[in-house]
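Summary for the funding panel

The consortium committed to producing paired sequence-structure records for every protein in the target list. Below we show the first two records in order, beginning with the earlier of the two.
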Amino acid sequence: MEHKEYLVTGEEQKGFHNHVDYCIGTGRMGLALQKEYMEQLALVQKEIGFSHIRGHGLFSDDMGIYREYTDENGTVHAEYCFTYLDLVMDSYRSVGLKPFLELGFMPEKLASGDQTVFYWKGHVTPPKSYDGWYDMVQATLRHLMERYGADEVVTWPLEVWNEPNLPGFWKDADMEEYFVLFERTLKAVKEVDIRFRVGGPAICGVEDEKWIRCFLEFCREKQLPLDFVTRHHYTTEVPQTEGHYGYTILRDPETGFENLQTTRDIVDSFEEYRGMEIHITEFNTSYVPNCPLHDTNQNAAYIAQQLSRLGDVNESYSYWTFGDIFEEFGVPFAPFHGGFGLVANGCIPKPTFWTFRFFKQLTGTCVHRSEDAVITRQEDGSFRGVVWNSSCRRTGRKLELSFQISCGNAEDRPYFLLTETVDENTCNPLKLWHDMGETTHLMQEQKSLLQEAAKPAIASRRVDVAQVEGKGVLKFLLPVEEYGVIYFELKPICEGGDRGYDYDRVLG
């Protein structure tokens, strides 16, 4: 058992920029037409509550926006169909979400080639006509403004394309061609309404420093009114494939944080862009949607540490994704298949789901931040915290955290300590599914049982206030199992109760 002691004055403010609820990722937007998709999204919004949602495929053919017809003179004309777009946007708005619109991929009839990505064949070649792309972008935005109001729609951030530095997502990873796309797209958007906020280059991994620097140099040279920078963040090694699955190893988190700091430093090295917002529009541990790590408590603990620091140099960080209705590698065979989602199919929350809910509750002023804990003080004098026991590989380490929190010149009345624990013993639907026999098709009773097993363990106790140098101090221990995450609240107790009720006598 590793023991750590933390002294928290309750007065010192620590740097902690908690933007955990700004944005969440999804698969292609057309999936929002499915019932299970919306049930998972409603669960995520009820328990966590994000502000924005970002996904691929706005202009892909399953959304049906771009059409062409030939008139009697043989002239080809473009026309636009927004039927599915309206259904998707209405669904998002019904659960309190604004879109973070990724402008991509290319409609087949507008594409200059036949290269596609994913099972659902998103076209990833430049447009055969940039005028056609320009007009489609403008028509789509004008339609959205007419339907939902201009003042609302201009608050939706716009990102140009997805991971153009990877040849699978943009033909030949052609940087110069992407810059053409970005410039034309930005001008099309700003011509519709100057208030729109547009960013890029949405890069991931490969040559990221070169791409960020060259992108900003291009925007400066062209005097483009860039509003923010976007990039992605994944933290595992290349997966090893076995059957339907990709097994991988976590990287030292410091390597990832250093890489993010490098992006911040590059942006700040340009005088005109210094301090500009950086949005991580995708992040997770593994970058493949068939990685069993995503379903584990290890993932939950690792992501807790990520959430404690991602706000240091980034305006937002969007977890990829909220749910497992997702088809990049095809329709999954089993409920636990290593999908990106916070929720497994069957509306079963994974351990990482609760990490997000716990961090969402860390409002107030941060009074402690360390490598395994964040604590905030609320205006009413109560405290909230999240602690975790994370490692890249299993070590068997158990962690005991000892806290001494100053609660000021408090009265002698005790505090109520509430804990919600997520670890391999208390909240581990993956283990239950394994013990069931790893069935690929859940019966309703199995699904209900897994949903029950996917809840945190709730416990409580009273903590007496000790007097140290005339000030009230709260002392308590939190043992954290390997890969565990615990949320806690400390509130002063206001004694009440009914006349004649004696708890000790009840237990007598």
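The next record, for a separate protein in the list, is shown here:
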Amino acid sequence: MRQWMRRAAAGLLAAAALAGAASAANFTHCADALKDMGLFIGTRNGYELDRVPTRAEAAVMLVRLLGQEDAAQHSDFATPFTDVPAWAAPYVGWLYENELTVGVSGTRFGTTLDCSAQQYATFLLRALGYADGDAYTYEGALDFAREQGVIDAVNCDTENFLRDHVVAMSYTALSRPTEDGTGTLLDALILRGSINKSQASDTLTLFQSYQAYERAREQTSQADPRTYELTATITDNAYNTASCRGTATIDGDDLSAELRQGDTLVMGLYQADGVLYQYVDGRTVRADAPVDLGGGVQIPISAVMGLTAQDGRYAFSFVPAVLGEMVTTPGASVSQVDYSARTQGGLLGQQTGRIHIALPVNGRTVTYEIELTATLADRAEQVSLPDGMEV
């Protein structure tokens, strides 16, 4: 295989094996959406998404997500805390009065102390109507928030929790159903009059389109086993172009996917017994982490910059900084990711992904534009693993 195609195959594998968790992605678009709805203001220095949130800032956001900012601003609840500034006093007072927060001591709220991911996940669960000690415990808040879809693959970094993650998790929580099952948190805030529906119209439309896509994705994931016909076009910045074809079969958590240029194997992904393998430079080697195929590939809503839906067709655009951090190939960077899907009989019948990826090659950067289309076949094949692969 020509050298450029070997490198392009590495780029294709990087695109196909997006996995892991983001650490410092930029969720400015989530902050913008929250600001448009009156839920996030920032500071006099802007959004300041790259610093750790304080307990006071988290308290303000919780009151807003509970739809109680107006009640807090027009109340005068007393607290025993001596370290709460005037701007935060109404919010902390309302939370204290309603037994939704306590201080770090009898007289200190801990206004300027860091807010952790665990603390903020607890706040969001309260906003969704889940009571501490009932549905979950504080110690299990992160796990329970993951189960409820509040925390996903990209929106929370428990080791380096930033205001960036606050806006991403808050935005995600707005799209999740409340504990009483009456609708999403955003629906509840609009119903209470805490958010103007016209100000939330763009976010509402995106959430509704996303939910329709999710229903199709979940229905597709239950249609195991299934086989897709694959086509791919790879173009580098020297205008070399290659066209490839292949198939992918998914059966539960088992996977076999191959792309060939003529008779030459360009890409291979195989998963068996919870272990993922990749075909690289003539060898099938074990990958860093398996892919969760049981529920299909779920798109983190905090990574979605745009989504259009019409007549069963969905077109997504993503934040490169978010998904770029999930590429497993060392030194690779992503400048654009797009995804589109079309339903067929309630299932995702055709899916197309486009990625612009840069790879370091001999001291210089080579870019590739990769387009991969998967079309659901009429009949499912069996998962086929390469001879000699250890499982």
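Regarding this second record: The chain has eleven helices and eleven strands. Residues 17-23 have pLDDT under 50 and may be disordered.
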